[in-house]
Specification:
Layout lengths: L4 H19 L6 E5 L5 E6 L11 H12 L2 H6 L1 E6 L3 H10 L4 E5 L1 H10 L12 H4 L5 E2 L6 H11 L2
The protein binds zinc ion (ZN).
Length: 158
C-alpha cells in the first residue's frame, strides 16, 4: 500500500514503541489506537518479558477500547501497528468491533525473516488478519518502513 502522511506519522510512532520494547528486553512491536477524529487515544508496546506471552499491544488496545469506547466509537477508530496482528490479537479486534487496521510489516514478511535467521517458529500459526476476521478493513504492508523494521527485528536476535 502507499500510506498517507497521517498514516505514516502513526506508524512511525508504532516503530518508536517497538524500539522502546526492544530496548527494555521485550519483543519489538508497538501499536497506536486513533479515534475517528484523528486523536491518539491509547498506545502500547509488547510486554512479554515477564513471562506472559499474551501481552501484545494489539490485545491491550482491544481491551482498552472495550472498557473505554462505545461500539460506534470503536468502529470508527483505526489501529496502527508495527507488525500485523497475530491470530489472538486479530480475534480480539474482531470481538470488540474495532475499525480499520494499518500495519507496517505483514506476519508473512516477519515469518520469512525469522526462518531466514533460523529462529524457531512461533507456537501460533501465522494467518492474515482477514482469515481471522473476514470483515476487517486492513491495509499494509508499508514498503517505506520495511528496511527499518527488518533491522529492528534483526537486532533482537544478535
Ligand atoms: Zn498478538
Amino acid at each position: 500500500m502507499s500510506a498517507t502522511d497521517s498514516d505514516l506519522v502513526h506508524l512511525r510512532r508504532c516503530v518508536d514503541l517497538a524500539r522502546e520494547a526492544l530496548a527494555d528486553g521485550d519483543e519489538p512491536f508497538g501499536s497506536v489506537l486513533v479515534s475517528g477524529d484523528g486523536v491518539v487515544l491509547f498506545e502500547d508496546r509488547n510486554r512479554v518479558k515477564g513471562g506472559d506471552a499474551t501481552r501484545h499491544p494489539e490485545f491491550e488496545i482491544s481491551r482498552w477500547a472495550a472498557a473505554n469506547l462505545s461500539p460506534a466509537e470503536r468502529a470508527r477508530a483505526t489501529v496502527y501497528t508495527s507488525g500485523e496482528h497475530c491470530p489472538m490479537c486479530a480475534a480480539s479486534h474482531g470481538w470488540v468491533g474495532l475499525g480499520r487496521i494499518v500495519y507496517a510489516l505483514s506476519g508473512a514478511q516477519l515469518a520469512g525473516w525469522l526462518a531466514e535467521w533460523n529462529v524457531p517458529a512461533a507456537p501460533v500459526a501465522v494467518l492474515p488478519i482477514g482469515e481471522v476476521v473476514p470483515g476487517a478493513v486492513v491495509e499494509g504492508p508499508v514498503a517505506e518502513l520495511e528496511a527499518e523494521l527488518r533491522e529492528v527485528h534483526r537486532a533482537r536476535f544478535r
